Amino acid sequence: MQLMGKTVQVRRALLSVFDKTGMEDFARGLSERGVELVSTGGTQRLIANAGLPVREISDLTGFPEMMDGRVKTLHPKVHGGLLSVRDNPAHQAAMDAYDIGPIDLVAVNLYPFEKTVASGASYDEIIENIDIGGPAMVRSAAKNHAFVTVVVDPADYPAVLDAIRQGGVPYALRQRLAAKAYARTAAYDSAISAWFARELQFDEIGYRSFAGTLREVMRYGENPHQWAAFYTTGEDRPGIATTQQVQGKTLSYNNINDTDAAFELVSEFDPHVTAAVAIIKHANPCGVAIARDLVNAYRNALRTDPVSAFGGIVALNREIDAETATEIVKVFTEVIVAPSATKTAQDIIAAKKNLRLLLTGGVADPKAEGLTVKSVAGGLLVQGRDNRNVDDCDIRVVTQKQPTEQEMADMRLAAKVAKHVKSNAIVYVKDGATVGIGAGQMSRVDSALTGHRKSIDAARASGVEGALTQGSVAASDAFFPFADGLEALVAAGATAVIQPGGSVRDDEVIAAADAAGIAMVMTGMRHFRH
Ligand SMILES: NC(=O)c1ncn([C@@H]2O[C@H](COP(=O)(O)O)[C@@H](O)[C@H]2O)c1NC=O
């Protein structure tokens, strides 16, 4: 392959695109450089209507497009023209024998499989939108990038035209376009296999592929020496991947991770029922509150841990109003994320140039099915999304003391927040707001103590002696293996506790609660989060 690595002149191009964006200009540019154009049905009509000379694919193959377009380019005259090694005498002999002409450039984009699935189309319609001929051409051309240029993204048309105007497409560009082409067909097949898996409810099908579309390359990852990029999967879930950035600096890797945690948390609360605000640091909440309006929810969330809230992410489940925006901008905040914002709220936030404002258009459905993926050395851990919460549980009172209505409401809030706190999680709540959060400790007792200690700091910050946890309720994300965790909650001042139960020592824990005279309920649902 002596020609390999050289700049290649383009003499014949095959154009077959579903998304016709930019195609007329691209075809004109090619035509002006003397490139012969060959094209399929709709693409051919577009080019011909623009007054440009273009051959129909059936003229090249000698076969009509048939079977509702299932077979149009699947022919040796196409694939031979794409795959032949130009300086290989045997390949040349085959081309001569079968009258196969070289094709130097292919521009293809595929039937919109992903969009068809997202639109809720029927099974048959989805199947019909699996492109076969397109990926086949893309793969042939990409394999033979030593000689052939493959363009799968209209965004690359200008660069390719520029190269052709300067005499030909250089090897480095052909190579990059080939890599992109295989990434595209891999992502396409990944979407098809993921759809099949969902449709047939296969939990295990032998292979899994996960794909995304590049949204942005970040300056760095979790730390400055780590490379990072954000890929979106196309899932139609209001949140970090679908958000519109209205203002502020570009998002960092950590911002994206924390904003996701923040918005998923407030999405637990139906905005028609209550306003909810979460302030997040390092993917853990440092304050969460629900209230009749956002401004009170924000003030109460902030009170939990005003020190940690500095440089935090604020998520809201309703449209941000001017009053709430005014409160938020008083504290140094990295990101605000909400379904929408009033014009006045946006103007108030605009005064802080660097502050990012992200609008999602709605809250996420906390009950929606989905997968989460985590990488481990040499593998991927895949599981169903944790799409259930305390509202799905049969709550059992296990102590002599019954919780009051207020305690019960606060325990539901505490349990929903605990679901979003890294394990071991302990969340203290009083009157609709968190008053102490213990996150990510290796022992449940330590989490209970941490939340308590932080509530003493927060009380002091607001000029109150003692702990905010006095008279609160507490939630634990998992059962208490011993009574010591429960006793730490009692010592912190909790009057009611919500936890899944299920320990072999549940009896001891219940006895400790009875001895302390507090109420305890069990949900039967654990919410580990790592
Ligand atoms: N069947 C084939 O041989 C075939 N060849 C190309 N396509 C696709 O047909 C589309 C373009 O069709 P048209 O030019 O008719 O709008 C492209 O998305 C291309 O990927 C095909 N369609 C499906 O497999």
Description:
- This protein folds into 3 domains: 12-200, Methylglyoxal synthase-like domain (Rossmann fold, 3-Layer(aba) Sandwich); 240-359, 3-Layer(aba) Sandwich (Cytidine Deaminase, domain 2); 393-522, Cytidine Deaminase, domain 2 (3-Layer(aba) Sandwich), CATH 3.40.140.20.
- The chain is built from 19 helices and 21 strands.
- The strands form 5 sheets. It has a 6-stranded mixed β-sheet with strand order 8-13-12-11-9-10, with helices on both faces. It has a 6-stranded mixed β-sheet with strand order 16-21-20-19-17-18, with helices on both faces. The protein has a 5-stranded parallel β-sheet with strand order 3-2-1-4-5, with helices on both faces.
- With 530 residues, it is an alpha/beta fold.
- The mean pLDDT is 96.
- Strand 14 and strand 15 (379-384) form a beta hairpin.
- Helices cover 38% and strands 19% of the residues.
- The structure holds the ligand NC(=O)c1ncn([C@@H]2O[C@H](COP(=O)(O)O)[C@@H](O)[C@H]2O)c1NC=O.
- The ligand NC(=O)c1ncn([C@@H]2O[C@H](COP(=O)(O)O)[C@@H](O)[C@H]2O)c1NC=O binds at residues 16-18, 40-43, 69-74, 108-111, 131-134.
- One of its GO terms (biological process) is 'de novo' IMP biosynthetic process.
- It catalyses: IMP + H2O = 5-formamido-1-(5-phospho-D-ribosyl)imidazole-4-carboxamide; (6R)-10-formyltetrahydrofolate + 5-amino-1-(5-phospho-beta-D-ribosyl)imidazole-4-carboxamide = 5-formamido-1-(5-phospho-D-ribosyl)imidazole-4-carboxamide + (6S)-5,6,7,8-tetrahydrofolate.
- Belongs to the PurH family.
